[in-house]
Specification:
Layout: H1 3-33, H2 39-62, H3 71-99, H4 108-140, H5 146-171, H6 174-195, H7 202-226, E1 233-240, E2 243-250, E3 253-258, E4 261-265, H8 269-280, E5 288-292, H9 298-303, E6 309-313, H10 317-325, E7 335-338, H11 342-348, E8 353-358, H12 366-369, H13 374-382, E9 384-395, H14 403-417, E10 422-426, E11 430-436, H15 444-450, H16 457-465, H17 468-476, H18 491-502, H19 509-523, H20 528-554, H21 558-571, H22 573-582, H23 588-612, H24 618-642, H25 647-697
Parallel strand pairs: 5-6, 5-8, 6-7, 8-9
Antiparallel strand pairs: 1-2, 2-3, 3-4, 9-11, 10-11
Helix pairs in contact: 1-2, 1-3, 1-4, 1-5, 1-6, 1-21, 2-4, 2-25, 3-4, 3-6, 3-7, 5-6, 5-21, 5-22, 6-7, 14-18, 20-21, 20-23, 20-24, 20-25, 21-24, 22-24, 23-24, 23-25
């Protein structure tokens, strides 16, 4: 291997390491900026892939016709890419409140536009560099293998994913992670320049490397400044593996933010009293309680009931330590803190409780929705005493219950009513659900007076705010025909998704229609082997989105596992590409075989979900992701060989794969999952691959001729 070739391949590997780590850090950053909305993941991946595909096409159009490839230019481009990674994160943080009102929700189209524009410079350059690296090598060796670049890039991608998943996510903040991931790229670029022996330009390249490193270091220095709130001050910040934890202080009030969402405050007496006393007032002598997540002041109110044991389940141990540090919860006698996912704890535990309280926000993400499904309520019922009570709350209303909110409440009512004989909705600042198998008392102040429990808010305001008429009117509004909410068909997420558009008087129809038209135009202009890559890219990223959302639904910690999932979907590409390169001359047969494998794998996933997705171990989804990416990697060198292997074939193949992946990401996340659920989303991806199988399986040997379009 020539010295220049070795140095160029090191740059390709380093680019892969840096880009995947930057992608994962960017995903986590946007999750923190947009309140943990999982649809943001899809919009990031879609934008990343589309922009990368555009960058690849630009490389084909201007190189070498207008811009001759050279090692020195690749070196400078790599320096710029490394510096942009830090600039990108800073821009994402700083411009969020500049373009949008602080603390407000943001519509679909502004969210997409913000993501697209803020990551565009980095992604366009990233998409440009990979084929440009090949052109640099082919300037010296004209027949240099495009598959080899693909394989080398995969090595870097896998390394970057592993670096993030097993080290960066545990040890460092985002800007420190950007620095660590970018350092190999700076070093590799410097070595590439050294291999050209242009000694007279060493000073310029040293200055370029120094400036790049300075930008990366400045990112670390500016990190606390970039997280400072617009109101109050930041008194605590920590990047947990499960989310960003921050505590803001304003006029003596401490507020805990998790993933950008305010979840705890030390001054919320009314909510604390309603959360605890509404359900506990139903029981004469409660002994044990399970609290899934918490709210400032609720443990203090629990103390008034003299419970022997209170099991407080919180997934992230860092959240617990922060709560105790800032006095957001009180360490009362009998309090047992359990650092485990609440749903997993219920599935594993054999303990029976007198009361179970869900203190969770609105189910507007898959992570939260999993605590409001038919499967979860079934778990709760098995862990409650015969006269036990389940309590949870939803957003309240003043005088008029809007139809979307009524449908959400009705779906929850119908879902939980399937497990409890009595379900009562209590109106107020929040709408509380009280669920049990025996009658429910509504005169809460009287019940508390009987037990000698003193309250501030309930004793003074309950009778004025909550009357029998209001309670009756609210419960009469429940629609028995509204679909139930389940893991594999999350009706509440469908409602949330529709409300997201309705709130801003927009619709996803126009965007989806435009995407379909552009996709059709693109498909009419590509060759058959490129269509195979397009459909494979769609299925691979569609499968990745399915696994990401499945993890949220069944396990609830995607912020932590996103790096692992992405890495697994990258890991299969390398052995697949190596095997595909060896067998590429078999062409059509290999594509048919791998298409069949992809369809079979998706069929296995459907059967597994049907049999009970919540009982599947995480390992199953990771093996599935590896096998899907293995088949995808297998197809690329075969399709590239059939396309002729030239510069045009390389860029067109890369673009087909990226654009297909972008389309699969968006269609799966915006259409299939919210409106049809996991199983039908998987079925939709099978139909797409069947089309590819038909196209490739029914074509004759003339297929090998270059220039033969899909039609």
């Amino acid at each position: 291997m020539k010295k220049n070739e070795r140095a160029t391949l090191l740059v390709v590997i380093a680019t892969g390491i840096s880009s995947v780590a930057v992608q994962l850090i960017t995903i986590r950053e946007f999750l923190a900026q947009f309140h943990g909305n999982e649809f943001v993941i899809s919009l990031i991946l879609f934008s990343w892939l589309i922009l990368g595909g555009i960058g690849t096409l630009v490389a084909h159009l201007i190189t070498p016709r207008y811009w001759q490839p050279s090692s020195s230019r690749l070196c400078w481009l790599s320096f710029i890419l490394a510096a942009l990674s830090a600039v990108q994160i800073f821009i994402i943080r700083e411009l969020r409140d500049f373009f949008f009102i602080h603390g407000s929700s943001v519509g679909f189209y502004p969210t997409l536009a913000y993501i697209f524009l803020t990551i565009a410079p980095y992604c366009l350059l990233l998409g440009f560099i990979l084929p440009y690296s090949l052109f640099v090598l082919r300037a010296e060796t004209p027949d240099y293998s495009g598959t080899r670049i693909y394989i080398t890039d995969n090595i870097g991608d896998i390394t970057g994913g592993a670096l993030f998943s097993f080290a960066l996510v545990f040890l460092v903040t985002p800007f420190k992670g950007i620095f660590i991931a970018g350092l190999p790229l700076v070093i590799a670029s410097f070595l590439l320049f050294s291999s050209t022996r242009k000694q007279r330009k060493y000073l310029k390249i040293i200055i370029g490397a120094a400036i790049t490193l300075l930008v990366l270091v400045m990112g670390i220095s500016f990190e606390p400044f970039s997280l400072a709130p617009s109101e109050g001050k930041l008194v605590y910040y920590h990047e947990s593996r499960y989310g960003r934890i921050a505590v803001h202080q304003d006029n003596g009030q401490y507020t805990l933010f998790i993933g950008g969402v305010p979840v705890f405050s030390n001054q919320n007496q009314s909510i604390a009293e309603e959360t605890i006393h509404y359900p506990l007032a139903q029981l004469d002598n409660p002994q044990s309680a399970l609290l899934i997540s918490g709210e400032g002041g609720i443990v203090k109110e629990l103390k008034k009931h003299g419970l022997k044991t209170v099991d407080y389940v919180e997934l992230d141990p860092d959240i617990i330590s922060v709560q105790f540090k800032f006095g957001l919860i009180e360490n009362i006698e009998g309090l047992n803190v359990i650092n485990q996912d609440g749903r997993a704890f219920l599935a594993d535990s054999e303990k029976i409780y007198d009361i179970i309280i869900l203190n969770l926000p609105e189910p507007d993400t898959f992570q939260v929705n999993r605590f409001f499904t038919d499967q979860f309520f079934s778990l709760v019922k098995r862990r409650l005493a015969p006269d036990g009570v389940l309590s949870f709350s939803m957003e309240g209303y003043d005088n008029y219950l809007a139809e979307p909110q009524r449908q959400k409440l009705s779906s929850l009512y119908n879902t939980v009513k399937n497990h409890f004989k009595h379900v009562l909705l209590m109106p107020g600042l929040k709408i509380f659900f009280l669920c049990r198998d025996i009658s429910i008392q509504t005169d809460i102040p009287a019940r508390l007076a009987e037990k000698g429990i003193i309250t501030q808010y309930i004793s003074g305001y309950y009778y004025g705010n909550i009357t029998k008429e209001r309670i009756s009117d609210l419960n009469d509004l429940m629609d028995p025909n509204t679909p139930k909410n389940s893991d594999d068909s999350p009706f509440l997420m469908r409602m949330m998704f529709s409300q997201w558009f309705a709130k801003f008087s927009t619709s996803p129809v126009g965007f989806i229609a435009a995407l379909i038209v552009l996709t059709i135009i693109y498909l009419l202009r590509i060759k058959r082997e490129e269509f195979v890559l397009f459909s494979t890219g769609s299925m691979t990223m569609g499968s990745e989105i399915l696994v990401i959302f499945a993890f949220q639904i069944f396990y609830g910690y995607i912020y932590f596992k996103i790096g692992m999932i992405v890495t697994i979907f990258l890991a299969g590409l390398l052995p697949g590409a190596l095997l595909g390169d060896r067998l590429r001359k078999k062409g059509k047969q290999i594509l048919v075989l791998t298409d069949g494998l992809l369809i079979t794998m998706m069929g296995i996933l459907i059967l597994a979900l049907k049999m009970g997705g919540d009982r599947l171990p995480p390992f199953f989804f990771l093996v599935f992701g590896f096998m899907v990416s293995l088949a995808c990697g297998f197809q690329f060198p075969v399709a590239l060989h059939l396309g002729g292997g030239g510069n045009s074939a390389v860029t067109r193949s890369f673009s087909a794969d990226l654009i297909g992946a972008a389309c699969g990401t968006l269609i799966t996340s915006l259409v299939l999952l919210p409106y049809f659920g996991l199983i039908w989303a998987a079925a939709g991806l099978i139909f797409l691959k069947l089309a590819s199988l038909i196209v490739i399986g029914t074509h004759n040997e003339k297929y090998k001729q270059a220039g033969f379009s899909l039609l």
